[in-house]
Design a protein that fits this description.
This is C2H2-type domain-containing protein. By secondary structure, the chain is α+β, with helices and mostly antiparallel strands. 48% of the residues lie in helices and 12% in strands.
Length: 289
């Protein structure tokens, strides 16, 4: 009993000393416990635990044994339920020591920290470009092979990953799953909702060093800075015309491809730009009035 207490105390003291005596021979990553090292080694060997197998089986059976007491949503993993519950409580227990931003999970915090450190651990072997996330690297790799394995059953457009296809499908279904708790406005993307929320807080954290104009998002500031620098980093591969914003390039490319992804639900007429569809829809509402 005394030995167990002493062992527990020794392990606990490592939290304060940051001592990590167990090293991975493959990647040199260090751990405070031998058991943690053993679990880590499976990332190199590909070995799966029995618990991982049981969780995986649920993807086939559809079993979701962990249910939210608040909204009834089911989950295959207890950890997923725990994270989900925080959306109801608003709890974000992991804080960034640099900027103070808070996150639901330690993993989200670690990803965020790379913004401050500049770490991009996933590199493309073809062109050397580096990425924050492995998923972003895998998406990027399809550019080199030209692979777009996920196709839209409605319009036939293809995508490099299922996530992009799912987002695209919302154009056809009209689904807007992300709603503003303040005004009720809905959006197809969570990122768009996050941007919208700053309208209510009137938060403009990013200022232009040249003219002093402030913006809610760093992306808006970067776009604005190109007015001063004249930079146009987005070039058309067909005609060579350059643009200050990627969105403007995408709109331009449709001149060459003839793509018209925005369709009228009333008469079926299609348009290259969403604004053109919005303008067209008014002709139907004017006729009704």
């Amino acid at each position: 009993m005394e030995d167990q207490v002493k062992s527990s105390l020794t392990r606990h003291s490592m939290i304060h000393t940051n001592e990590k005596p167990f090293s991975c021979v493959t990647c040199k990553k260090k751990f405070t416990r031998k058991s943690y090292l053993r679990l880590h080694m499976r990332t190199h060997t590909g070995e799966k635990t029995k618990s991982q197998l049981l969780i995986h089986i649920r993807t086939h059976t559809g079993e979701k044994p962990f249910s939210c007491m608040t909204c009834g949503k089911g989950f295959a993993r207890r950890a997923s339920l725990t994270y989900h519950m925080m959306t109801h409580t608003g709890e974000k227990p992991f804080s960034c020591g640099t900027c103070g931003k808070c996150f639901l999970t330690k993993f989200q915090l670690l990803l965020h920290m790379r913004i401050h450190t500049g770490e991009k651990p996933f590199s493309c072997v073809s062109c050397g470009k580096s990425f924050l996330l492995k998923m972003h690297l895998l998406n990027h790799m399809t550019i080199h092979v030209g692979e777009k394995p996920f196709s839209c059953g409605t319009c036939g457009k293809s995508f490099i990953n299922k996530g992009h296809l799912n987002v695209h499908m919302r154009i056809h279904t009209g689904e807007k799953p992300f709603s503003c708790g303040t005004c009720g406005k809905s959006f197809t993307l969570k990122q768009t909702l996050d941007h919208h929320m700053k309208i209510h807080t009137d938060q403009k954290s990013f200022s232009c060093g040249t003219c002093g104009k402030s913006f809610r998002l760093k992306m808006y500031l970067l776009n604005h800075m190109r007015i001063h620098t004249g930079e146009k980093p987005f070039s058309c591969g067909t005609c060579g015309k350059s643009f200050g914003r990627k969105m403007h390039l995408l709109n331009h490319v449709r001149i060459h491809t003839g793509e018209k992804p925005f369709s009228c639900g009333t008469c079926g007429k299609s348009y290259s730009h969403r604004s053109s569809l919005t303008h067209h829809m008014k002709t139907h509402s004017d006729k009704k009035s």
